[in-house]
Design a protein that fits this description.
This protein is mostly helical and 266 residues long. Helices cover 80% and strands 0% of the residues. It folds into two domains: 1-30; 43-265, MetI-like fold (Orthogonal Bundle), CATH 1.10.3720.10.
């Protein structure tokens, strides 16, 4: 038994090292006082300071935040409504199976196929209106399309876990639909809604493939900027930028976990 526990512990440690050593190495070289090479030349924060003096990076960061925030708000609203409608409405069994399959399609379809489909769809829309030219609007619509499915799946799993007993008890106490939704269902769903929103925000923040296919010349995001910069040369500024994006993602995950824990305790 001890040998099995030791083997499991060693495997877990090796897995953690395998996952996090590359991330730590990026952070390590972001504070290395050398522009080229892998030799340690001293500690510096100059590369982080230069990020805030680079107009291209600031513009890409602004596009990334606008894209992530707008798409997250819309997809969270749509995903929550979709999850409630699918789980609480008495659909026929065949219809429920069909809706469940449609909901999972954006999750299981490869990004490259989904992005190509977006290009074709926007091509048809462009024939109707010039507003669908490649750019930030197309990126927001494309992100909403796949983010909604992730939000709906997370919220729906929360709906399944809380069951219908509390809502039925509220109905027995003469709660109308509006009161039931605002005072019972949504408060119970809040951990799932927040988790879905944070997942959607993270997916949008880190997305490259779909953004690459739908972006315009003035809608470059941070992943697209990093990709273009890495193709030329990997500089400490890229390490610093990648580290900042990683830190933002980690902070969001920690905040989501603490918020969910507090809500569950209440």
């Amino acid at each position: 038994m001890r040998k099995i526990n030791l083997l499991v512990s060693i495997t877990a440690i090796c897995t953690m090292v395998f996952l996090y050593i590359p991330l730590l190495s990026v952070a390590f070289f972001s504070v290395n006082d050398t522009k080229y090479g892998m030799v340690w030349k001293g500690f510096t924060l100059d590369w982080y300071l230069k990020l805030f003096q680079n107009e291209m990076i600031l513009h890409a960061a602004w596009n990334t935040l606008v894209l992530a925030i707008v798409s997250t708000i819309v997809s969270t609203l749509l995903g929550t409504i979709l999850a409630i409608g699918m789980d609480r409405f008495p659909w026929p069994r065949k219809m429920n199976t069909t809706l469940d399959l449609i909901l999972h399609l954006p999750v299981i379809i490869p990004d490259i196929i989904f992005a190509a489909a977006m290009v074709v769809a926007f091509g048809f829309l462009r024939a109707l209106s010039s507003m669908f030219e490649p750019g930030l609007l197309n990126m927001i619509i494309a992100h909403i399309t796949f983010q909604t499915a992730f939000v709906a799946l997370v919220v729906r799993s929360r709906l399944v876990s809380i069951g219908k007993e509390v809502e039925e008890a509220a109905r027995d106490l003469y709660a109308d639909t509006t009161y039931l939704l605002l005072k019972v269902t949504l408060p119970l769903l809040m951990p799932g809604i927040v988790a879905g929103a944070m997942l959607a925000f993270t997916l949008s923040l880190d997305d490259f493939v779909i953004s690459f296919f739908t972006a315009g010349p003035d809608s470059v995001t941070l992943p697209l900027y990093i990709y273009a910069a890495v193709r030329r040369v990997v500089t400490p500024q890229i390490h610093a930028l990648s580290t900042l994006v990683l830190m933002v993602t980690i902070i969001m995950v920690i905040c989501m976990e603490r918020f969910t824990r507090k809500v569950n305790i209440k």
